[in-house]
Write a structure and sequence with these properties.
The structure holds 2 protein chains of 2 kinds.
Chain A (H helix, E strand, L loop, with lengths): L1 H24 L41 E6 L4 H15 L4 E6 L3 H11 L5 E5 L3 H6 L6 E5 L5 E6 L7 H10 L2
Parallel strand pairs in A: 1-2, 2-3
Antiparallel strand pairs in A: 1-4, 4-5
Chain B lengths: L1 H29 L2 H30 L6 H6 L6 H7 L4 H22 L5 H25 L23 H29 L5 H32 L10 H26 L3 H24 L12 H25 L14 H33 L7 H21 L10 H7 L1 H17 L5 H16 L14 H26 L1 E7 L4 E4 L2 E12 L4 E11 L6 E3 L2 E5 L4 E5 L1 E5 L2 E10 L5 E9 L2 H28 L7
Antiparallel strand pairs in B: 1-10, 2-3, 3-4, 4-5, 4-6, 6-7, 8-9, 9-10
Helix pairs in contact in B: 1-2, 1-6, 2-4, 2-5, 2-6, 5-6, 5-7, 6-7, 6-11, 7-8, 7-10, 8-9, 8-18, 9-10, 9-12, 10-11, 12-13, 13-16, 15-16, 16-17, 17-18
The chains are: A alpha/beta, B alpha+beta.
């Protein structure tokens, strides 16, 4: 009896360990679905975020053609990692509109000079009001918007090389 | 350079931990005094090196060195200094470094301070501490290097989660970590004592201040965390049985049991195996808690630093340390001599019941916390275990525990007479009976659990003062005062919980500006709603006038709903007015289509007693600590001169 009691804690721990380990190994089934998908872009008109480039307004996003809207900032580190993929998409002919969150024009110019400039236009959102309206949960974040200005797809976080085909097919589906 | 210096210090500390472990094992096996003597200085230098690494990271955060990836991701030049400082540990890597630092410094402190313990046992303890340290060093250096550089450096950092930008939360994690790591020292002492088969009073006395210190900090951490959740989350509740809360409650329950059993071992040489077991369990619960919070296998409102890779690493550490300690326990505890005997009716007997009840509550919380995980792996369904399970399962046991707490301190060690004990607690029992009568008359229809809670609080509140009865108060040892105040604190807390749960009044309405509503004894009127802008958020702020009765003095409350852009979060800033007999708690929500505002108001009688009690419990622990240390100094052998 005493021997059994002595080893009971270890046996219990091993049982818990198996549960922990299986919980850790089992694939994650959570996907975040934005409530904005299928809804039109909120109304906004942003001033140019950087000298020499147009600003962005919601009206021009409903011009009959699908595009990407990329929420980013020069102070955002994953945005640097994302830059080559955005360049690749731009070279494939995808129109990309940028919304720069809480940024200064000179910082933004430096960021674009260093990491490339795939944007057709960049709107400056100094107090994050458009970001809030979009329900965006941080930078970077990318929306696929169809020709009527309706959000079709939301990508949270930086676009990594393996995400590019998914974005392209979402754009194709938004035609 | 600072970052490289910090990293170098960390590598050196890890190397010294390895040396400490090897020297310790060789020394304890061979008994060679030169090897044994080398371990203490190594432990001290290891502690100093971890401290250097930690200070280096603080420095990088305070100066906002954005070429360090961790700083760039969690700091910003525009942040207030306090949050630059606190940002050091407001993230995964920094908090792990803080953990290792406390571990290393605690090991160094044991090496310097501990003089009475048998030398071999102490060295085995330091070796065990080094073994724990090594696992966490490996974790830091291979899986979460806090000093990694970022090239090119960004021009601005990303800042800190706005929910964490709260002075309370800046110091909440260090408090809990100090508590967890204090338990790691107790764990090392237990392992050391098992290795040398030296489980006795000296070991218990050496371990006790660490358990006591850890317990005080855990008590403070849990109390503060509960108040933070209460005012910051805006739900009006003070305990949610959330996995993250449970992660701190479980080590506290184990530490509370350990604190009581270690006293039995230190005073009466009893409960040897049980005390060692509890020391292992207490630290295991700290590690299980860390694992649950960081692995992401349980979802929680506080979810933080979620990463399965890190979860795997911590799980491996868990297996090595807990599994290893339990195996050592199984192998060795059979050879530990049984402790002194005692009767069922005795101080020891009551402490055994205390320990069993605390362990049962711990089991209930552990099962409830892990049940969703178990259920998912068996049935594949996601489900959660809510407050009804915890309250109805743990509540009655807690009540019995509190009743035992009333009787235990008035019992004699070794053997007591049941009749004499009954006579000593007759007065508190009478008071409890009167309270029962009073509550039933004044609040008919009160639910059974809060009713018993109020009754127990009244009886125990009085009983906790019994050890002072007929004593010369000025000559009563400080640790007796500590016990009395801690037990009184439990009664106060319990009164608060019972009153809050029985008498809270809640009003939830959609209201227009100018309308009045009644909540408890108060009449509240929505005067105005205005948008306002904060430094890094936008908000709507309501102005509400509250009066107690028709002719009462007006009080102005201004609840807010804040929207933070990065990361996008909405927080409810409740407006809370504290008066003598409770709190008025008001939250304002969103407007509906007809322009009416959602208003939620609570009147919570005596809710502040919950945290006041918690503070008393911790203060009692502090007094006991001071009292024990003073006694130790007075009774210490004279310093040795060579």
């Amino acid at each position: 009896m005493r021997r059994l009691l002595i080893w009971a804690p270890l046996a219990l721990f091993i049982a818990f360990f198996v549960v922990f380990a299986s919980g850790l190994i089992s694939p994650e089934s959570k996907t975040i679905r934005s409530q904005l998908i299928g809804k039109p872009m909120p109304q906004f008109a942003l001033q140019p975020g950087v000298a020499g480039k147009a600003g962005v307004s919601s009206a021009e996003l409903a011009n009959g053609q699908p595009h990407l809207v990329n929420v980013f900032a020069s102070w955002c580190i994953p945005c640097i990692a994302e830059a080559p993929q955005l360049d690749q998409l731009a070279q494939a002919g995808v129109p990309i509109y940028g919304i720069a969150i809480r940024d200064r024009p000179e910082d933004l110019a430096r960021f674009l000079a260093r990491n490339g400039d795939p944007y057709r236009a960049i709107g400056g959102d100094p107090n994050s009001s458009v970001q809030i309206a979009l329900g965006s949960s941080g930078v970077p974040e990318t929306f696929v918007v169809d020709g009527k200005g309706i959000i079709r797809h939301q990508h949270i976080g930086d676009i990594q090389p393996q995400d590019v085909p998914g974005i392209m097919s979402a754009l194709g589906a938004a035609k | 350079m600072i970052a490289e210096g910090g990293l170098a210090a960390l590598w050196l500390a890890a190397a010294l931990a390895a040396l400490q472990l090897v020297l310790g094992i060789m020394g304890v096996r061979s008994g060679r005094t030169d090897l044994l003597a080398a371990v203490r200085p190594v432990a001290v230098v290891q502690g100093v090196l971890t401290l250097i690494a930690f200070v280096a990271l603080i420095w990088l955060f305070v100066t906002v060195d954005l070429s360090v990836a961790l700083v760039a991701a969690n700091d910003a030049s525009t942040k207030p200094l306090l949050y630059k400082f606190a940002g050091t540990w407001g993230n995964h890597e920094g908090s792990m470094l803080m953990w290792v630092t406390i571990l290393g410094v605690a090991g160094g402190a044991v090496a310097i301070l501990e003089r009475r313990l048998n030398e071999r046992t102490l060295i085995a303890t330091l070796a065990a501490q080094a073994a724990i340290g090594l696992g966490f060093y490996a974790f830091l250096l291979f899986a979460s290097n806090p000093f990694a550089r970022l090239n090119p450096a960004p021009v601005e950092g990303q800042g800190l989660n706005p929910l964490l930008q709260d002075p309370g939360l800046a110091f909440h994690p260090p408090t809990l970590y100090l508590g967890y790591v204090g338990l790691s020292v107790a764990f090392s002492f237990a392992v050391g004592a098992l290795v040398t088969r030296d489980v006795g009073a000296a070991f218990a006395r050496a371990m006790r201040p660490w358990v006591l210190g850890a317990w005080i900090l855990l008590t403070l951490g849990i109390t503060a965390g509960s108040y933070w959740a209460y005012y910051e989350l805006g739900w009006g509740g003070w305990w949610f049985w959330d996995p993250v809360e449970n992660a701190s409650l479980m080590p506290w329950l184990a530490a509370t049991a350990l604190l009581h059993s270690v006293t039995v071992l230190a005073t009466r040489e009893g409960l040897r195996a049980w005390t060692v077991m509890l020391a292992v369990v207490a630290f295991s619960m700290s590690m299980v808690g860390t694992f649950l919070v960081r692995s992401g296998i349980l979802t929680s409102v506080h979810a933080f630093a979620v990463d399965p890779k890190r979860g795997t690493f911590i799980l491996a550490l868990l297996a090595i340390y807990i599994g290893g300690a339990l195996a050592l326990f199984g192998l060795r505890v059979g050879t530990v001599r049984e402790g002194s005997r005692f009767d069922a009716v005795s101080r020891e007997g009551s402490l055994v019941i205390n320990n069993l009840l605390l362990s049962a509550i711990l089991g209930i919380v552990l099962v409830g916390t892990l049940y969703p995980l178990i259920a998912e792996s068996v049935t594949g369904e996601k489900l959660s275990v809510g407050p009804p399970y915890f309250n109805s399962a743990a509540g009655p046991l807690a009540l019995i525990l509190v009743a035992v707490m009333a009787a235990g301190p008035v019992m004699r060690w070794r053997r007591d007479d049941l009749k004499a004990v009954a006579r000593r607690i007759a007065l508190p029992v009478l008071v409890a009976a009167l309270a029962l009568l009073a509550v039933i008359l004044l609040a008919p229809g009160i639910r059974i659990l809060p009713l018993l809670g109020l009754v127990a609080a009244a009886g125990v509140g009085l009983a906790s003062l019994a050890p002072l009865w007929k004593r010369n108060l000025r000559r009563t040892p400080l640790f007796i005062w500590g016990m009395v105040i801690s037990h009184l604190g439990i009664a106060v807390s319990m009164a608060g919980m019972a009153a809050e749960s029985a008498f809270t009044r809640e009003t939830l309405v959609a209201t227009q500006v100018g309308a009045t509503h009644k909540v408890g004894p108060y009449i509240v009127r929505l005067d105005d709603v205005q948008p306002i802008a904060g430094p890094n958020y936008t908000a709507i702020e309501a102005t509400i006038t509250a009066r107690r009765g028709e002719g009462g003095e007006p009080m102005i409350l201004k609840p807010e709903t804040r929207s933070f852009p990065s990361p996008q979060t909405e927080t409810n800033e409740a407006a809370i007015k504290t008066v003598l007999d409770g709190q008025l708690y008001i939250v304002v929500g969103k407007p509906d289509d007809q322009g009416r505002w959602q208003l939620r108001a609570w009147w919570k009688p005596f809710v502040t007693f919950i945290w006041l009690g918690g503070a008393l419990v911790a203060f009692g622990g502090f007094l006991a600590m001071v009292g024990r240390i003073r006694r130790e100094i007075r009774h210490a052998p004279p310093p040795e001169f060579i």
